[in-house]
Design a protein that fits this description.
Length: about 90
């Protein structure tokens, strides 16, 4: 099956849109990206989407890996999200 994927990185998150046969599904997931201090790898996960996480040495590798995981999870049907990414906030402590 031919897959269509799109992503963009903004402020430490990857927005992912996945579809089939070059027709996008109107569903977007936001993956939060962090760097693991022990391994140096980039780790991405989709808040509230159980199992939707992966890692990679670069943003491109992480993106490919997490898109593959999300596509596989979506084959089992629409996920029941247990949370939703809202945003980030800087906290100043003085």
């Amino acid at each position: 099956m031919d897959r269509w994927n799109d992503w963009r990185l903004q402020g430490g998150q990857i927005d992912i849109c996945i579809g089939h046969n070059n027709v996008p599904i109107m569903k977007t997931f936001t993956a939060v990206v962090e760097r693991d201090p022990a391994t140096g790898l980039l780790v991405g996960y989709i808040p509230g989407f159980p199992g939707a996480h992966s890692q990679g040495e670069s943003l491109d590798e992480l993106n490919a890996n997490i898109r593959e995981v999300v596509a596989m999870l979506l084959e089992d049907g629409e996920p029941k999200l247990t949370g939703e990414f809202v945003g980030t906030q800087r906290i100043a402590v003085g």
